[in-house]
Specification:
Layout (H helix, E strand, L loop, with lengths): L2 H8 L3 H9 L6 H10 L13 H4 L3 H5 L18 H11 L4 H22 L6
Helix pairs in contact: 1-2
């Protein structure tokens, strides 16, 4: 999606989108919500690859929290990851339904084999 189209979708100019992208301007929580909605992703997507040193400089970490918050989720939802989104988009760019079905079946077989190797229940 172009910066211009993204800007139009959230009511901004492409110049403002560029400033967000370069980090020249901060993105408010409500604007981040708008971006996630337009890009059809979870807000957590924007924080997946945040380095620990950046996270440790957040205001809450610098001030120190009275108590440690409970982790939101022990294991991140794979449906909220960029990799999943890219994989699904690539899958649906395959126009031949038979090729798509064979790829789907192959992926399931590889996952089942992987579960066998690590001794995991495939229904988990």
């Amino acid at each position: 999606m172009s910066q211009e189209r993204l800007g139009e979708a959230i009511g901004l100019t492409f110049q403002q989108v560029q400033k967000y992208e370069r980090g020249a301007n901060r993105v408010s929580a409500s604007r981040l919500y708008d971006l996630a909605r337009v890009l059809d992703t979870d807000i957590n997507f924007f924080f997946e690859e945040m380095h620990d040193e950046v996270a440790q400089r957040s205001p809450g970490q610098l001030r120190g929290l009275a108590e440690q918050p409970a982790p939101y989720e022990a294991e991140p939802d794979p449906m909220a990851k960029r990799e999943t989104l890219e994989l699904v988009r690539a899958y649906y760019r395959i126009h031949d339904p038979q090729v798509r079905k064979r790829l789907f079946e192959m992926t399931k077989a590889l996952a089942a084999r992987s579960d066998e190797i690590v001794g995991r229940d495939p229904e988990e």
